[in-house]
Amino acid sequence: MQVIMNVRSAVKSKWVSQTIRELQKQRANVEREEMLLLLHLLEEKFGPNNLQSRWKPYLDMLPALDDQENTLGSPLFYDEDGDQLKMLEGTDLLSLVVNYRDRAGQAYSALFDHLKRSGHDTIFEWLTERRFRWANAILDSRSIWWSGQRHLVPLLDMVNCQELNSKHKPHHTNLDSFGLHAVTKASSDFAAGQEVVENYAQPNYIYLLYHGFVLDSDSHDCAHFHVEMPTAARQGEFSVLLRTLDIYSWTPDICVFPNDNRSIE
Q: Is the pLDDT of residue 236 over 50?
């Protein structure tokens, strides 16, 4: 657990903890744990003491932002008027990509405004919006989840995704009985020299949105629908219908799987 980057290691940074406290006092519209990890990653990778970071060997292995051709494939780096966004026109995924990009931009703006008001202008020498988007892309594509929190785990986060046969179970990570080690077991036996892969068990729209790739064959894929329920419809029979479907949001994301033969009457 000592080599892992998570909320616990983030709050040990005086600058990260102070910045989060001040953002909360100003009631900035940012998610606390996510911002903690973003600032932690940014400070360790780009901050003034980055060469002395205990995580430097791990951080040096992450995709480099300075390489203009290497932007993780993340929609956060799609050109505003580029072909990638145009290819998504007419799909529900476009609104998710636009919202994702907007959330990252708004979070940076809230942080920028706070640092500017606080007179911490020198921080912008290493904390740029492009680097902030890079940190978002790293967290969203590489985080390992357990106990309801995300963690950056050296080596484990480098295991690639692959569609595997039915004997391979989706990956899962748990703490051991002492809470000292995170344990992820391989889904099957892998021969010496063979690449260890795992099934992330997500539909392709999640892969593209947060990981920057899609699989040609994905047994967890679905037809994705993003629904925006107008205010006038948020009552009566629509409300009953949504409860019947176990949907408790006015803007749900719905996946319809090919083998799902249920119908709505």
A: yes
C-alpha closest to that of 187 among 174, 176, 200, 177: 200
48, 127, 260 from 201: Cα distances, Å: 39, 34, 17
Instruction: Give how far the C-alpha of residue 162 lies from the chain's centroid of Cα atoms, to the nearest Å.
Output: 19
Which residue spans within 155-252 are E strands per DSSP?
160-161, 173-175, 182-184, 197-198, 223-226
Contact 68, 130 (CB under 8 A): no
d(CA 147, CA 34): 15
- The tokens 């203009």 sit on which residue? 68
Same domain assignment for residues 28 and 142: yes
Closest CA to 219 of 142, 176, 162, 155: 162
| CATH number of the domain that residue 145 is part of | 3.90.1410.10
Asked if 227 and 109 sit in the same domain, the reply is no
How far apart (Å, rounded) are the C-alpha atoms in residues 44 and 9? 11
Q: How many domains does the chain have?
A: 2
- Same domain (yes/no): 150, 20: yes
Taking the model in full, what pTM does it have? 0.86
Using the Cα atoms of residue 32, residue 33, residue 38 and residue 43 in order, give the sign of their dihedral: positive
Domain residues for the domain of 234 are: 223-256
The set of long-range contacts for 217-221, using a CB threshold of 8 Å and a minimum separation of 24, is 217/163, 218/163, 219/163, 221/257, 221/258
38-82 per-position pLDDT tens digit = 999 999 999 999 999 999 999 999 988 765 555 578 999 999 998
End of a domain among 158, 182, 202? 158
Could you tell me if residue 46 is inside a domain?
A: yes
The last residue of one of the domains, among 119, 134, 158, is: 158
Q: Which residues are CB-neighbours of 214 under 8 A, at least 6 positions away?
A: 204, 207, 208
Q: Is residue 235 part of a domain?
A: yes
